[in-house]
Structure formats: structure tokens, C-alpha cells
Design a protein that fits this description.
424 residues, globular, two-stranded antiparallel ribbon, mainly alpha
Length: 424
């Protein structure tokens, strides 16, 4: 394993945000440098994207082309002239596709020319783990935390949130660590689950990938409950499969790792003040349910999500949307951040279902590509794990573009190997 590439993966996935004008340097190295690199290596970039000729992938591309143009014309048709969906949603997805394409090309050209999904996934997981390690160190060691608070950028809203004891673990070198950070940690856990399934008859490798998912799981616990819920759900599906294969010992090992991790957090809760607020944030909903019979957390997040973020709009809006994505002040239209509601409010349920079909086609292609050298009988299970993860995240916030940004370059990676031969 090459340490420089692990650090590169960590810094690209989790942009370093320094205080003052220095924070703009993160945009330069996260997006500017990868863009320049890909332009200088256009042959590699084209090779990555031209080789998949499957019907499913061609349909995926056609749907996304359709959605892009309909996103442009929809505010014109409805006379809202609100093009924020283009400059927010589509821009974000293109940037994520670009940065993960960059990581794939660097991996294939400079790190491991003959490497594939398994090796890249290890780098992905270890990159996420580095970020979680630094976050954890800042929580336990106050000198590190004080130094990071001096040099890391936090907006006024972030500073207000950080004053809540429940949110003090949501901090790292990106500053406020929330939905994006827990998403990357969740993808790392999902990749580890896939590697476990892909090595069903290799117990030592399964143990290795079980150990690799520990820090991403810790990251989920620190940054976002939705990521923790998603990761635990995917792990349970993986455990069920391993159990059905008769490997009860490995299931017990997974349970032991999870319980040990929980025990460590509980011990920290008693010894480190910051973790007392974290404990309330994580477990208050369960404690309230046991006391009152109602499932709600002390911050009101769960109730806010289920009661304020979802409603049945008027039929015209439900079918065709309102052609609005952001309000004039930059806030979300209708003040919802639900991944299902926001695109539906923009261009209707039909177009949103088209985007859902596109991600399902990509998931299918992803499963086929990563199982080329594994047990193809596990393809359906990988698809189930990914759909489960997408559904959970999309319920909380917009994530289809994030899954597309990560999965698309990884899906096409095997084609780059085929087109480049032995790199001579």
C-alpha cells in the first residue's frame, strides 16, 4: 500500500478547509488540480468512459442526458427561470464524478496498473479511516482540538451548531462534518461488506475487511446517525448471508467487534465530556421510546424529518413540479432537504422516477463489474445492499448524485484495465 495515495484519497474525499482566504485552496486542489490532471491525461479519461457497451449502461447515459436537458428547460416551460438546480445539483454531481475519476486514473496509472476493485476499495476505506482517526484524536486530545479550531474554517452557523454538546463530535479537518462525511464513511463500510462477500471462502481476507470497516463505522457514529443506520443495516444483510453460508463463527466475530466498539464509546462517555453529548445524540430516541413509548430524539431531528420534510403536495406539483429548487435567499424551496421531495418539487414525480431508474441501472452495472473476478451468485446481494443504502440516504437528503459520483468511475475501472493492456 502506498501511503501517499492513501493521503491523497483522504484529502480529495475530505477537503482540508483552513481559516480565512486559505479555505479557497481546498477548492483548487480538490477540483482544480484533478481537472488539470484529467485534461493532461485525456486519453486515460476517454478510455475509462468509452469501453462499457452494455445496453444497461447506454440506457443509463440516455436517461441522464434527458434529465440534464429537462432540468434546463423545465424552469423555462414553467416560467420560473430558476436555474439553481443546474448550478447546484448538476454542478455537484459533475464535480464528484470528476474527483473520483481523477482518483481512479491516478490509481491505474501511478499506483497499481493491474489493480482492480478490491485494491482500490482498500485505499478508499483507508482514506476514510485517516480522516476519522484525526477527528477522533481531536476529540480525545484537547491540544489537537484547540489547534484545529484555530486553523480550520467554521461558518457562523457551524459555530452555533458546535455549541450544542450533542454536535461536538461532528468536527474534522473539513470543519463541520455531517451528511457528506457520514456518506463517504458509509460507502467505505458498503465496500468492505462487498469485499467480505467477494471473499466468501477466504476467512483471513474476510477478517481483514472486517477490521477495515471499524474506523468508517466510528465516523458514522461521530458525523451522522443516518450513515450509522445505513452501515449497520448493510452489515446485518452481510451477516445474514454469511450465516446462511454456515459461517457462524465469523458472524460472532462481527458482533464482537460491534459490541467492543460500543463499549469503547460508552467508556469514553464516562471519561471524556464531549462524548456525553454524543451519547445523548445517538441514544436519546431509544431512551425516550423506553420511557414514553414514543420514538423521538432530544434535538427534535427525527420528528422534524418525518413531519416537516414530507407532505403530499398538490397534484399539479406532484406530477410536474413547480420548477423551483432554491429560494431567492438561497434556502431550500418549501424548506425541505429530503432527497425525494426536492427533485419532485422541481420537475415532478415522473422525472424523479427516471433518475431512480438511472441509479438502479448503474447499481446493476456496478455489481456486475465488481463481481467479474468473484462469486457471481452474490450479484443480487450486492444490489440489495446498495439499494438499501441509497433508499436510507435518499429518505434523509439528496444522495443520488453522490452515489452516481462514486459508483460511476469505479464501475468503469475494469474497462480501463482492458483497454490499457499491460501498460507498456
Amino acid at each position: 500500500m502506498k501511503m501517499w495515495y492513501i493521503l491523497l484519497v483522504a484529502l480529495i474525499q475530505f477537503p482540508l478547509k483552513l481559516t480565512g482566504n486559505l479555505r479557497y485552496l481546498s477548492y483548487l486542489y480538490v477540483y482544480g488540480f484533478p481537472l488539470i490532471y484529467l485534461i493532461l491525461n485525456l486519453d486515460w479519461t476517454f478510455d475509462l468512459y468509452k469501453n462499457n457497451k452494455s445496453i444497461e449502461f447506454q440506457l443509463f447515459k440516455l436517461i441522464y442526458i434527458y434529465l440534464f436537458f429537462i432540468s434546463i428547460f423545465w424552469p423555462l416551460i414553467l416560467c420560473t427561470f430558476d436555474f439553481s438546480y443546474i448550478f447546484s445539483y448538476w454542478r455537484s454531481m459533475v464535480l464528484w464524478v470528476m474527483k473520483y475519476t481523477f482518483l481512479i486514473v491516478v490509481f491505474k496509472k501511478h499506483v497499481s496498473p493491474n489493480g482492480g476493485f478490491e485494491e482500490f476499495s482498500e485505499y478508499f476505506i483507508k482514506g476514510a479511516s485517516v480522516y476519522v482517526m484525526v477527528s477522533s484524536a481531536s476529540l480525545i486530545l484537547s491540544p489537537i482540538r484547540k489547534l484545529m479550531f484555530k486553523i480550520i474554517y467554521l461558518s457562523n452557523a457551524d459555530m452555533i451548531n458546535m455549541r450544542h454538546s450533542e454536535y461536538q463530535t461532528r468536527f474534522g479537518w473539513t470543519g463541520w462534518s455531517g451528511f457528506n462525511e457520514t456518506f463517504v464513511c458509509t460507502v467505505a463500510v458498503i465496500l468492505a461488506c462487498i469485499l467480505i462477500l467477494n471473499n466468501n471462502d477466504r476467512l483471513e481476507k474476510q477478517k481483514k475487511y472486517l477490521s477495515l470497516m471499524i474506523f468508517p463505522l466510528i465516523g458514522n457514529a461521530l458525523y451522522g446517525r443516518i450513515g450509522l443506520l445505513c452501515s449497520v443495516s448493510c452489515i446485518l444483510v452481510t451477516c445474514f448471508f454469511v450465516f446462511m453460508k454456515g459461517n457462524m463463527k465469523y458472524v460472532l466475530e462481527i458482533a464482537a467487534v460491534f459490541l467492543m466498539g460500543l463499549a469503547v464509546f460508552i467508556i469514553l462517555k464516562e471519561r471524556v465530556e464531549i462524548f456525553k453529548g454524543w451519547y445523548r445524540w445517538i441514544f436519546s430516541a431509544f431512551e425516550n421510546y423506553l420511557k414514553t413509548g414514543k420514538f423521538y430524539d432530544n434535538m427534535g431531528s427525527i420528528e422534524h424529518l418525518t413531519t416537516d420534510m414530507y407532505w403530499l403536495p398538490e397534484w399539479n406539483t406532484f406530477l410536474f413540479g413547480d420548477g423551483r429548487y432554491l429560494n431567492a435567499n438561497g434556502s431550500y424551496y418549501m424548506h425541505t432537504d429530503s432527497g425525494i421531495m426536492r427533485p419532485m418539487l422541481y420537475y415532478g414525480i415522473g422525472n424523479y422516477m427516471m433518475s431512480t431508474l438511472a441509479i438502479l441501472l448503474l447499481v446493476h452495472e456496478f455489481a456486475l463489474s465488481v463481481m467479474k473476478h468473484g462469486n457471481r451468485r452474490n450479484i443480487k446481494l450486492i444490489i440489495v445492499i446498495l439499494i438499501l443504502g441509497i433508499a436510507i440516504f435518499e429518505f434523509k437528503g439528496e444522495s443520488l448524485w453522490m452515489f452516481t459520483g462514486v459508483l460511476l468511475p469505479i464501475t468503469l475501472m475494469s474497462g480501463l484495465t482492458a483497454s490499457r493492456g499491460n501498460y507498456q
